[in-house]
């Protein structure tokens, strides 16, 4: 290129602002008399100008609904009939408007409150993601049966007190194990302190039935039903450990002034109205649901959330969620803190 004959050049940068693609072009000239420094300055100005505009116009983060739980909320694989199993956390998203909120199903199959709290990929990873304006649905109790005797055991210490146990790890270090209530309280309190709205859910109802005239394995009779058998007398389990985890969850909510949805009895009452044989089609075993069962439980949860007095989730619902009637008030405990005098 001869001196005095500058070439015409330019730069182009592209960014997404919301759903719109923004393209910025800057034309300039280069002249060998000024060397490469002016060219670099112009390119930098072009690039950072677009990035600056993109950052200023970026869409704000939507509030997130975090689901903390076990395989009843999130599972995979095929069930005994060959069709996929799924937890209720998957269809729950259908009841919320994706333009207003994001549902983050961070439940982990096989975990108890203790193992979820300790696993680096679970609570330690999720906790920093929770921000003011988010929601947390917290449910454990299926796998918490204890006390744990070794680090490999997944249970927690029964109850909600301050009892602890020392569990020796393979490397010689010690894990201090706590009660079910301690772990639930620790996660719920941390999330609330970060500005999230926390809802405690009592343990998901299991597909385990009894009848004074018959014996079942889960929901399947173990022997021919007697002539005097009456299906109206079938009763479903109402919470693990004879309902203790349901009760302990309610006690934690009352102690911390956190809202509690009695998912155990809400689903149990609805299941008993449907009947054992109909409910059994929802489940692959006594814990894990197929898609229809997961959606039934998800709908029950949303109807329960709609029954709380604060109505905080109502603006976030999709048309499907809005169409659900609220659950009866007897299934929810608002546990609002005392009004300051």
Can you walk through the features of this model?
There is one protein chain. The chain has 341 residues and is of the alpha/beta class. It folds into two domains: 7-57, no CATH class; 64-333, 3-Layer(aba) Sandwich (Rossmann fold), CATH 3.40.50. It has ten helices and 14 strands. It has a six-stranded mixed sheet with strand order 4-3-5-8-13-14. The chain has a two-stranded antiparallel sheet with strand order 1-2. The chain starts with 6 loop residues before the first strand and ends in an 8-residue tail after the last strand.
Order of helices and strands: EEHEHEHHEEEHEEEEEHEHHHHE
Major sheet attributes: 6 strands, mixed
Spatial separation of the terminal alpha carbons: 83 Å
Count of individual beta strands: 14
Radius of gyration over all CA atoms, rounded: 27 Å
Strand order, biggest sheet?
Answer: 4-3-5-8-13-14
Number of helices: 10
Summarize model confidence as the mean pLDDT.
87
CATH class of the largest domain: Alpha Beta
Proportion of residues in extended strands: 15-25%
Query: Which regions contain 5 or more consecutive residues with pLDDT less than 50?
Result: 1-57
Question: What portion of residues is helical?
Answer: 25-40%
So, CATH architecture of the largest domain?
A: 3-Layer(aba) Sandwich
Helix/strand class: alpha/beta
Total domains? 2
And the CATH topology of the largest domain? Rossmann fold
């Amino acid at each position: 290129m001869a001196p005095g004959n500058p070439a015409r050049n330019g730069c182009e940068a592209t960014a997404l602002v919301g759903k719109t693609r923004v393209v910025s072009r800057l034309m300039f000239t280069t002249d060998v008399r000024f060397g490469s420094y002016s060219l670099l300055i112009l390119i930098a100005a072009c690039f950072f100008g677009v990035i600056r505009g993109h950052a200023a116009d970026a869409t704000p983060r939507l509030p997130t609904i975090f689901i903390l739980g076990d395989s009843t909320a999130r599972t995979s694989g095929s069930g005994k009939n060959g069709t996929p199993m799924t937890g209720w956390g998957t269809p729950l998203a259908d009841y919320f408007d994706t333009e207003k909120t994001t549902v983050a199903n961070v439940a982990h199959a096989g975990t108890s409150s203790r193992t979820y709290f300790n696993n680096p990929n679970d609570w330690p990873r999720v906790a920093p993601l929770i921000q003011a304006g988010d929601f947390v649905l917290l449910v454990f109790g299926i796998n918490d049966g204890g006390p744990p005797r070794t680090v490999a055991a997944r249970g927690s210490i029964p109850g909600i007190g301050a009892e602890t146990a020392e569990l020796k790890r393979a490397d010689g270090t010690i894990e201090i194990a706590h009660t079910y209530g301690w772990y639930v309280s620790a996660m719920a309190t941390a999330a609330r302190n970060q500005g999230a709205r926390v809802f405690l859910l009592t343990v998901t109802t299991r597909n385990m039935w009894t009848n004074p005239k018959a014996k079942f394995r889960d929901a399947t009779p173990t022997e021919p039903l007697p002539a005097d058998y009456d299906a109206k007398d079938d009763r479903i389990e109402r919470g693990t450990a004879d309902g203790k985890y349901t009760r302990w969850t309610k006690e934690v909510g009352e102690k911390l002034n956190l809202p509690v949805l009695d998912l155990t009895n809400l689903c149990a009452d609805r299941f008993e109205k449907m009947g054992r044989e109909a409910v059994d089609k929802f489940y692959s075993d006594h814990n894990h649901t197929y898609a229809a069962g997961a959606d039934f439980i998800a709908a029950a949860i949303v109807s329960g959330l709609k029954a709380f007095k604060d109505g905080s989730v109502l603006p976030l619902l999709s048309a499907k969620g809005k169409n659900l009637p609220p659950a009866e008030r007897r299934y929810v405990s608002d546990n609002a803190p005392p009004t300051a005098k």
